[in-house]
Amino acid sequence: MTDTPAEESLFHIIHCYHQYAAREGDVETLSLEELKALLVDNVPRFMASLGRKELYYITELFRGADKNKDNQICFDEFLYILGKLMKDYHLQYHQQLCAHYCAQHSLY
């Protein structure tokens, strides 16, 4: 039996986390630089949509997730980041749908 698209996505997220965590220092945690690289490399359109706020956004995600204040993001803390990222991405998705609908119906 093959994995569902959701199962594949979960595997890829876990694999991505470990791939970036292994770049420097502790191979089980992400530094701010590793998190930045992970996000810029893997969600580039979303990051680009933030414009100049990109670094601020990533720093705020990092600070909010780093519950034990060790300047590292463990996998459990990364789950918080994923939740926030999904929430923000979902909001952007709805804004794009609304803009598309309004443009199609001459509501601008």
TrEMBL record:
Keyword Glycosyltransferase listed: no
PROSITE patterns: EF_HAND_1, EF_HAND_2
The EF-hand domain, residue ranges: 58-88
GO biological process, one term: endothelial cell migration
One GO cellular component term: extracellular exosome
InterPro entries assigned to the protein according to its UniProt record, in alphabetical order: EF-hand-dom_pair, EF_Hand_1_Ca_BS, EF_hand_dom, S-100_dom, S100_Ca-bd_sub
Molecular function, one GO term: chemoattractant activity
Keywords: Calcium, Metal-binding
Superkingdom of source: Eukaryota
Keyword Metal-binding: yes
Protein name in the entry: EF-hand domain-containing protein
